[in-house]
């Protein structure tokens, strides 16, 4: 019984330490995460859940009936490191940052402009008949 009493707390501490190691991120890990995410999904939006500009960019893809892979930076412990990595990769630290087929589109205004010009539909390979202004 004494062995179980010692092993269980030790196991809990080990698991907790492992989880904290996984959830924190080095700059290299954040950069690798950004690159892997961009290469693994057709549409990626790096966002913050409370940001109205992010909501606007996400709504563009809803209008087009396209599902984006959204990374909500404010809901991740390593969100700040990911945002720093985005700054290194695209030269901007602001959100949203939108990627389609590994191509950086830009932020909210860039995404809406690409939508309104038809460029977004071309990049996505879809036909859009009645585009509406956002």
UniProtKB/TrEMBL annotation:
It comes from the Eukaryota. Pfam families: Glutaredoxin. Gene3D superfamilies: Glutaredoxin. The keyword Disulfide bond applies. One of its GO terms (molecular function) is glutathione disulfide oxidoreductase activity. Residues 1-25 form the signal peptide. Residues 43-105 form the Glutaredoxin domain. InterPro entries: GLR_AS, Glutaredoxin, Glutaredoxin_euk/vir, Glutaredoxin_subgr, Thioredoxin-like_sf. GO terms for biological process: cellular response to oxidative stress. GO terms for cellular component: cytoplasm. Keywords: Disulfide bond, Electron transport, Redox-active center, Signal, Transport. Belongs to the glutaredoxin family. CPYC subfamily. Has a glutathione-disulfide oxidoreductase activity in the presence of NADPH and glutathione reductase. Reduces low molecular weight disulfides and proteins. This is Glutaredoxin domain-containing protein. It comes from Carpinus fangiana.
